[in-house]
Specification:
This protein has about 100 residues and is mostly helical. The chain is built from 5 helices and no strands. The chain has one domain: DNA polymerase, domain 1, CATH 1.10.150. Helices cover about 55% and strands about 0% of the residues.
């Protein structure tokens, strides 16, 4: 997969930006983790979850990948149910 397979036509501007940012991380592994999650979930996230997702998009790739792989403990502020869903869904990226 080289990028989003989801149309953003039905998304509000805030969700469109988050979708693009999820696929334009800089580190391909993080593009796949966050981009694939956004493709499947962005339209259904509650406002609070969307805010949590946007906050994760601000975390540097080098930090985020260590949290995802378990190499470093997740900062308490980001250790949310949403983050756990993202991590649970990314097994194929790291196998």
């Amino acid at each position: 997969m080289t990028g989003t397979m989801r149309s953003s036509a039905d998304l509000d501007p805030r969700r469109r930006r988050a979708l693009v940012r999820a696929w334009r991380r800089g580190m391909r592994e993080m593009d796949l983790v966050l981009g694939q999650f956004a493709d499947s979930e962005i339209g259904d996230l509650a406002e609070g979850e969307l805010a949590q997702f946007e906050a994760l998009l601000d975390v540097p790739d080098n930090t985020l990948i260590k949290w995802i792989t378990g190499e470093q403990p997740v900062d308490e502020a980001y250790d949310t149910a949403l983050f756990k869903r993202i991590r649970a869904g990314c097994g194929a990226v790291f196998t």
